[in-house]
Amino acid sequence: MGKSPTSFGLKILSHPDLQVTSLLKMKDAIQVTESLSFSGSTSQTVVFEEKKEIIEGNYIATLSFIDQLGKPIDQKYGNYLWQVKAETILEYLSKFTTPEKALTVKTNLWSDYIKEQLQHDELTNWTVALMSNQQENENSFKVTSEIICNPASRQYLNRIDGIISIGTLLSQGDEFLDIDVQQEASRKIKTLRALRRETNGLLLVYPLTITDKFAVDGKKPAIKNLDQRIIGLVACFPYSETAQTINYVANTIYIKNNE
């Protein structure tokens, strides 16, 4: 066609399940619109700021949040579960900071979407799960006098300009902790997600240990010069007929060519 790759605009359909994996390197990319539709999606934080005050702020907000929930109503596979109202979720999200570079995976967008759906009597009830490995490890810590959390480990992918990213936060099956899927295990994920009622949401809270890409003596050690009190969040939303929009990311060339 006689044109270099940089001559073309880029438009990427953006869905809460997806991340632009090279986000930290996309200097020309800008977000054209921000959608408030997370219908039938599982949205997870995979980009984190390394600033100590932000990590500490999210950590303290999370400990306070878990403490106010009281005694868990259940424990599955080492994970602690509670049932709460939407207002409790919104209060916690208002105190949690996500990076601007996270695009659609921002707690303020989750909050806006929840508030919108509350007007339709949806997302009124939430299950909160504090994710904890079943086996204690060197990074285990006391959340409350009755709760010991064993953080999950995730390998970092990129580390640029004070931002660190991982591949995925969600472990297989975690998004269905609030649904009885034993008899439905052979079904596709979309089918299983459809089992979640429109009134119900799920918030997974993952205390994390971020490990190095490279193994030392056969193991991938935790990154030493990183505050390891990082908290990751996953929000699981039911399908909704009242939320049908999507958003997209477009670079500056695409915008220029389509003015």
Question: Keywords, please?
Answer:
three-stranded antiparallel β-sheet; 27% strand; alpha+beta; 19% helix; 5 helices; 259 residues
Structural class: alpha+beta
Number of strands: 14
Low-confidence stretches: 3-14, 17-23, 250-259
The main pleated sheet reads as: 9 strands, mixed
The DSSP helix count reads 5
Radius of gyration: 19 Å
Q: Kindly report the average pLDDT value.
A: 81
Task: Please state the oligomeric state of the protein chains shown.
Answer: single chain
Helix and strand element order: EEEEHEEHHEEEEEHEEEH
Structure notes:
The chain has 259 residues and is of the alpha+beta class. The protein contains five helices and 14 strands. The strands form three sheets. Strands 3, 4, 5, 6, 7, 10, 11, 12 and 13 form a nine-stranded mixed beta sheet that branches. The protein is globular, with a radius of gyration of 19 Å. The N terminus and C terminus are likely disordered.
